[in-house]
Amino acid sequence: MIRSSEFAESFRIAVASLRANLLRSVLTTGGVVVGIFIVVLMGWLIRGLDSVWEQTISIIGRDMIYIDKWNWAGGRNWRLAESRKDVTLDQVMALADRMESPEYVIPMTRQWGGSISYGSKSLRTSIVGTDSDYGATPAGSILDGRFFTSVEDQQSSNVAVVGFGTAKTLFPDESAVGKTIKIRDIPYRVVGVIEKRGFLFMDFIDQQVFIPLRSFRAAFGFQGRSFSAAIKAGNERMLDVVRAEAVGTMRVIRNVPPHKEDDFAVNEMEAFDEQAKSIRFWIWVVGIGLTVLAFIVGSIGIMNIMFVSVTERTKEIGIRKALGARRSSILMQFLVESTFLCLFGALIAMPVAQIVVAAIHTIATSVYDFEAASAVSILIPLDLLGIAIFVSIIVGILAGIIPAFRASRLDPVEALRFE
Amino acid sequence: MAEIIIDIEHLSKVYEMGEEQVFALRDVSLQIGNNEYVAIMGPSGSGKSTLMNMLGCLDTPTSGLYTFKGQNVRTMSDDDLAEIRNREIGFVFQTFNLLPRATALKNVELPLVYSGVSADKRRERAEAALDSVGLGDRKEHKPNELSGGQRQRVAIARALVTSPSIILADEPTGNLDTKTGQEIMAVFEQLWLHGKTVVLVTHEEDVARYARRIIRVRDGLVESDTVTT
Ligand SMILES: Nc1ncnc2c1ncn2[C@@H]1O[C@H](COP(=O)(O)OP(=O)(O)O)[C@@H](O)[C@H]1O
Ligand SMILES: [Mg+2]
């Protein structure tokens, strides 16, 4: 049974001892400070990643399926994909024709590293040939201007819609709309800029330039090119139905015998989720590793200082025992003290973490200029602070248990004799 | 004899010093009743402190029986002993043994902390105890702001505050000059007159003379046990 009067006394002792040894306390809590700092920062980073990720994916839409020669996810299937026959435009158009369940089936093809220029500026990026339906999907949602029309597609007009990143690079201080850029030295008129969608490793999405398929054919040719079908299911619940129909229809179109595997890939946003998960995982691994290390160092420091404290106060322990302190009273006294030290460390770490978080947030939002960043809080979430406090209490108890136990077992007569 | 508080029979305490055995107490038997005033006398190293630690349940005997108010002390756990010390025994030490950073009041409150008395009641009782030893105006002083005699009064107040059955004082005047020592002895006299049981350890005849019964020990043996008048 622990008496509240004893607990209050333990607390009073801990405060007094902290005040009496302020410098020593600050120094010994170093490891704990670092540990708590990392815990909070890591938690915030993962939260931020998750919410930004969620936003990025939801802009593009979780209801998108891409029928393609290549698997997005799989390095392991690379050879297999290589051996597949290209997906032709006719096959994609046939798919679009026959499928009933999806909202859109949009043909796409892509020239990697196509060169584009504006005045003296030039860059290489991914040039996408597609049709006007792309502009109706969330992925093609326009920030400025408009998407190209089906008429422009039919007429093979030289019009382009540029991604947010490309617009920023080529037209840092002016509107891109109405300007003429060159793609493969062919002049194209920019009619629209797509909203920013990508973040971190998804940045490439914003570098793309979209032109009508026919115009793409004129610029790059269709020879030896594989197409893909971007299928928008309409909503996530339809995904399974649409996927099944897409696969079934595509197998018929490509004459895949019943017992053979698909000779094409079905890509979904989940492939990117894997990537996000692995980043998340590595933040965890590194974060937990560093945290554990910091806490080990921190607890050794605290344990050490608690041993010193027990030795310094041997006489006091003797006095308290003579006056009726039980083992549990002494045990608690020192556990409260070590926990208090750790909490003190957390108290130092949290404002520091908050400052760093605010700095990262400010820099990241200005560099990325990205709306999704607003999903990341500039303040450390309260539950993370709660976790930090919880962790420091646990560390305090673990670091203090051995010294406290030793103190509680001191023989009162011996302890009283100690000078 | 009045109600028996302390009853020890054939008590021995042996310290193992490597190969050698030191007999601090050999086969000591004695009884102390309520409201007695006893001095334990003997030269240095005779076993007085060992005996007092035993009586105060700070230490346990190697052999023999110790009954405190009818309870067998030898079979008690550490926590039971702590409880007995807290409720039944008030210690006064030669070197005062006050907590240096705590005020007189906080020092006196300390035993009550371990008996779970609320803060208000603690303060009330500690103030009363300090008043009773004439230190009502020194409550907020720290030990280093007090004279030796005043420190010992604080220690006595601390011993009294739980209303224990017995006050055990080990050389309480050992660190005080003669005059202050006499003042402290006057305090013990008052306690005894007010019904307390006092056991005093000393090697000075002058101090022992205050008591009404003198137990002389030598080499861990009780030499004599005489009631004075
Ligand atoms: N912890 C101990 N270890 C070994 N010997 C001890 C210990 N405590 C006391 N003694 C020995 O026991 C004997 C009695 O000691 P003590 O009771 O302190 O004597 P006094 O208080 O009468 O001077 C002495 O010989 C002393 O050296
Ligand atoms: Mg002694």
What can you see in these coordinates?
The complex is a heterodimer of chains A (419) and B (229). Chain A is α+β, with helices and mostly antiparallel strands and 419 residues long. Chain A is 55% helix and 15% strand. Chain A is built from 14 helices and ten strands. Chain A has a six-stranded mixed barrel. Chain A is elongated, with a radius of gyration of 32 Å. The two termini of chain A are 31 Å apart. The mean pLDDT of chain A is 87. With 229 residues, chain B is of the alpha/beta class. Helix content of chain B is 33%, strand content 30%. Chain B is built from seven helices and ten strands. Chain B has helices at 48-55, 78-88, 104-113, 119-132, 148-160, 178-193, 205-208; strands at 4-17, 20-33, 37-41, 63-68, 71-72, 89-92, 166-170, 197-202, 213-218, 221-227. In chain B, helix 3 crosses helix 4 (119-132), helix 3 (104-113) runs parallel beside helix 5 (148-160) and helix 5 (148-160) runs parallel beside helix 6 (178-193). The longest helix of chain B has 16 residues, at 178-193. The radius of gyration of chain B is 17 Å and the shape is globular.
| Beta strand count of chain B | 10
Sheet with most strands: strand arrangement of chain A: 2-3-8-5-7-6
Main beta-sheet strand count, sense and barrel state of chain A:
6 strands, mixed, barrel
Task: Indicate the mean pLDDT of chain B.
Answer: 94
The dominant shape of chain B is globular
User: What is the helix fraction of residues of chain A, given as a range?
Assistant: 55-70%
| Oligomerization status of the protein chains | heterodimer
- The rounded Rg of chain A comes to 32 Å
- Structural class computed from helices and strand pairing of chain B: alpha/beta
Distance between the termini of chain B: 16 Å
**Which two chains share the most extensive interface?**
A-B, 25 and 30 residues
Which percent range describes the beta-strand content of chain B?
Answer: 25-35%
